[in-house]
Design a protein that fits this description.
- The structure is a single chain.
- The chain contains ten helices and eleven strands.
- By secondary structure, the protein is α+β, with helices and mostly antiparallel strands.
- The strands form three sheets. The chain has a six-stranded antiparallel β-sheet. It has a three-stranded antiparallel β-sheet with strand order 7-9-10. Strands 8-11 form a two-stranded antiparallel ribbon.
- Strand 3 and strand 4 form a beta hairpin.
Length: 335
């Protein structure tokens, strides 16, 4: 399917697509991605970058446009990009459908976490769960929820979804999925569109941060996933949250978000307390050293890297405190 789409929509940088009905022109810059339902290009429209999606399936285009319109009506939602316009264009006498949408700049979710640290996982997923809650209340399930469809904008650090092709009306069958994030693949539920389907995927996104290469199912899905969680220390803090989401115990995004908030609050207090204890130990060590002979201490410092180590420890503690306070600041803005 992807090869067919690329052969049919083989646009080169600099080519221009002109809408049949509105006459707007889109200058192709490069391909952004290709999937089962279409191909997306980065294009220039009136001097600004936009994302342009083309598809052989006109009904798919209409469905995705309706989803984007629904997203646009959710005030404060950070989900899909805003819709600019939809049109057709004629190529060799054949009509093709497309729509233009906001181009979201930023880092992919996994790349952002790898670059900035695992402490960002909870902060970003708090945002995602809030947006999913709004989406579910509007009667939609995102469906094909995975890191590839998540962008973290900079410098605002807002998590956004960039592909709504799998979004499905609640109650229907999921129309697009990726095995690793699909509860049906793991034998842990149906592919019926309901909030718990998305929440299972959120749990798998967290697991994916510890296993960037992912893994395949072997035997009992739930038992295997629990073992994979236990094998990675960075996942221990989320253990109960993950098991609840994987087993379908969360009926709505608010419940999962509340549990995640409790985890973050607990971790923040632990980090602040730990940093404070380290500073106290360092201060006591410095005071003990100062109580000795001043000349002897200076002599030791000349031949001993202890003073340098002390400064490094103090710097590390200060950096830790600043990092924790910054995360708490971001957390307070997002809650």
């Amino acid at each position: 399917m992807m090869n067919t789409l690329r052969n049919q929509y083989n646009f080169q940088p600099g080519e221009v697509i002109t809408g049949k009905w509105y006459g707007n022109k889109y200058k192709i810059i490069r391909e952004l991605g290709c999937g089962a339902n279409g191909i997306v290009y980065l294009a220039e429209y009136r001097g600004a970058p936009v994302a342009l999606k083309l598809s052989q399936n006109g009904m798919s285009i209409i469905s995705e446009m309706n989803v984007l319109k629904s997203f646009n009506k959710v005030q404060g939602s950070a989900l899909g990009p805003y819709l600019i316009e939809a049109d057709d264009y004629i190529q060799n006498g054949r009509k093709h459908s497309f729509y233009a949408m906001e181009y979201i700049r930023g880092d992919g979710f996994l790349h952002f976490v790898a670059k900035n640290g695992h402490e960002w996982i909870g902060v970003l997923l708090l945002q995602l769960l809030k947006s999913l809650s709004s989406l579910h209340k509007k009667g939609w399930v995102f469906g094909d929820l995975k890191p590839e469809n998540l962008i973290v904008t900079t410098p605002s650090y807002i998590i956004r979804c960039v592909d709504v092709g799998g979004t499905t009306v609640i109650g229907r069958s999921i129309k697009e999925f990726t095995e690793f994030f699909d509860r049906g693949y793991w034998g842990l539920g149906t592919r019926k569109a309901e909030p718990s389907y998305d929440l299972f995927a959120v749990a798998m996104i967290i697991i994916n941060t510890a296993y960037p290469a992912r893994f395949s199912r072997k035997g009992q899905g739930y038992s295997q996933l629990r073992q994979q969680i236990q094998a990675k220390k960075e996942l221990w803090r989320y253990k109960n949250l993950l098991e609840n989401a994987l087993s379908g115990k969360y009926m709505n995004a608010e419940a999962m978000r509340n549990d995640l908030m409790i985890i973050l609050q607990r971790d923040s207090k632990t980090q602040v307390s730990s940093a404070g204890l380290n500073q106290q130990k360092h201060n006591r060590h410095q005071n003990n050293k100062a109580a000795g002979n001043t000349r002897a201490v200076r002599h030791v410092h000349k031949k001993n890297p202890g003073k340098i180590h002390g400064r490094l420890l103090e710097t590390l503690v200060l950096v830790t405190l600043v990092s924790v306070l910054y995360i708490l600041y971001l957390y307070s803005r997002l809650v």
